[in-house]
Write a structure and sequence with these properties.
With 144 residues, this protein is of the alpha+beta class. It has four helices and four strands; from the N terminus they run H-H-E-H-E-H-E-E. Strands 1-4-2-3 form a four-stranded mixed β-sheet.
Length: 144
C-alpha cells in the first residue's frame, strides 16, 4: 500500500510539474507557446480498455478550455496525443490511444474550443510514462 501511495504521489507531482504553467497561472489571457503542454491527464484518467474521462479530468479540461479560448490563445492549434499501456496487441493499443485522444478533443469542443483547432494522434504504448501500466493510459494536449 505504501508503494502504491508513493507512486500516486509521484504521478501527481509529475502531472503538476507538467502543467505548472497552466495550473499556477490565471486563464486571463496568458498566451501559450508552441510546444507547450497545456494538459496531461491524471495517472488514473483511463481505466483498462477505456476511453471514458473521469470527473477530475473533465474539470481540468474545462479550465484548459477557458485558457485556450482566452484572447491570447484563441488562434492556437492543438494536438491531443493519446497513449495506452503495454497490455494487449500493439495495433489495438494504437486504436485505443486514438479513441482516448478523441475523447479529450470531444470534451474540449463541447467546452467551446473550435474543433478545427484540435488534431488527434494515437501513439499506443510507444512512450512509456511511468512504471505502472495505468500511468501510460493518458492524453497530453500540446500547443502545435
Amino acid at each position: 500500500m505504501k508503494k502504491q501511495s508513493l507512486l500516486l504521489i509521484a504521478g501527481m507531482a509529475l502531472l503538476t510539474s507538467a502543467c505548472a504553467n497552466l495550473c499556477e497561472t490565471p486563464c486571463s489571457g496568458k498566451p501559450c507557446s508552441r510546444g507547450e503542454v497545456v494538459f496531461v491527464s491524471s495517472p488514473s484518467m483511463f481505466a483498462f480498455n477505456s476511453a471514458d474521462l473521469t470527473a477530475q479530468d473533465k474539470k481540468a479540461l474545462s479550465d484548459v478550455a477557458a485558457r485556450l479560448n482566452s484572447s491570447g490563445n484563441a488562434d492556437k492549434k492543438l494536438v491531443a496525443n493519446g497513449y495506452a499501456s503495454m497490455e494487449g496487441p500493439a495495433s489495438y493499443n494504437v486504436d485505443l490511444s486514438q479513441r482516448r485522444a478523441a475523447a479529450v478533443k470531444s470534451y474540449l469542443v463541447g467546452a467551446g474550443v473550435a474543433a478545427d483547432r484540435i488534431s488527434t494522434k494515437g501513439y499506443g504504448a510507444t512512450d512509456a510514462f511511468g512504471p505502472k501500466y495505468r500511468d501510460n493510459r493518458r492524453v497530453e494536449v500540446v500547443v502545435d
